[in-house]
Predict the 3D structure of the following.
Amino acid sequence: MRKLTTLLAASLALTCLMAASALAGTTLTYANFPPAKTFPCVQMEQWKAEVEKRTNGDIAVQTFPGSTLLNPKNMFRGVQTGQADIGCISTAYYPGVFPLISVVNLPVAFTSTEVASRVMWDLFQKYQPKEFADVKVITMFTSAPSQIMSKTPVKQLGDLNGMELRASGSILQILSGLGAQGVGMPMSQTPEALQKGVVKGLVSSFDVLMDFNFAESCRHETITNLPVYPFAIIMNKARWEALSPESKKVIDDLALEQAVWTGKYLDKHIDDSLNWSKEKYQVEVHELTAAEHATIKELGTPLVDQWKAEAVKAGLDADAILADMLALKAKYEAM
Ligand code: 3IO
């Protein structure tokens, strides 16, 4: 009997200890704006699983996809003020706020998400831009090169005349140069805009054909290879500072890996999405002529000059940043 009591006491003590250590762990909230199926949320779940595994459960991550905690426009502020511990921002939704990292949104003909994501992370690491000084940057990545997805066919650039297309960032200006009417809004508002007919299509990467089911209404896809959208995963600074050195190391060690994982995932996923769209909705893919691609390229030149002027105004060495981006792009493309 005495032995049993001791055993019970011991197991009770152990249970309390385990509960206490679980309580001592940290739960981080992670806000995201698009629906759970989309690539920014797929990478979020991947990161959550890795962090929980590598910290042996010291960190638990509670994810909030679909703007359930913060929406695309209040994400940056919401993380700074601690409404969420971690958040995902598409930087093109914040004109003028990211003078350095917006370089990745320029029309420089990225062909791979993995390459663009590596380049973005390297640039961030090298320059540590002060536009992110108020937050901890967890990782960065981009969308795939942007294409036109529309209700009516865009078989030649002339077909764009007056067409309302959803986009954000630098693509809006290229669209206006092409005679289309760019409508700026976050991706997560696009389903409603398409459904109401406010826009007749969108410019983004092909993953959204499947993940938002846009293939159903946008049966025409035109290969334009327009810019990628840069994303940053940011964390509240005070919450970051409060983590243990071990947890911080796990998160820092994961940054580049996460950027590459996301790039690889999306590069494959755009193929899957396009194939699915062809099978399910018989979408048509339209190719432009070399002369039309040259026209698109020309429209990009003033954007680069404009970015440079704004970067210089923000105290940045624009020429060095641009040269670095192109050199990194060439380096990773050759690998
Ligand atoms: C994007 C944004 C949210 C969910 C899936 C997505 N695929 C490509 C993008 C990029 C984009 O159009 C944007 O607005 O960030």
